[in-house]
Fold this sequence. Notes:
4 helices
Amino acid sequence: MASVLFGGNPVNTNGELPIVGSKAPDFKLLTTNLSNVRLSDFAGKKLVLNIFPSIDTATCATSVRKFNADASKLPNTKVLCISRDLPFAQTRFCGAEGLENVINLSDFNTGNFGKEYGLEFIEGAFAGLHSRVVIVIDENGIIKYTEQVPNTSNEPNYEAAIAAL
């Protein structure tokens, strides 16, 4: 399990992130139009998984905006913003912000993504939500980069994630 800071206090996750160089675990998440999507639906694409507790926090919103701006510059690349928010909240946020270069996906109904990727908070006020993580997956489904952001209030290392593509 990993330990990160949330509100200045240590909080544990349910496990460790997948290992760089390994095959990315499959997932099933809900899109903003309420259909299911799997990792295999993005076969042949490079992926940036921007994972966070909630779209309605300042740091999470900043990461979505930043990856949205960067995504338009990257060939054969999709940015998947993953949280346990309801798809309606994700749609509202991106619509209000005019964000078109990211794909919002929700793990609200099962939480299986967070559990399987080892990034679910298991204690504290956000227990059950996702910790702030970035995972880069290449077009062959291999994990090229992971970052468990050590302090949930901090932004991820955007440059390192983009460089891993």
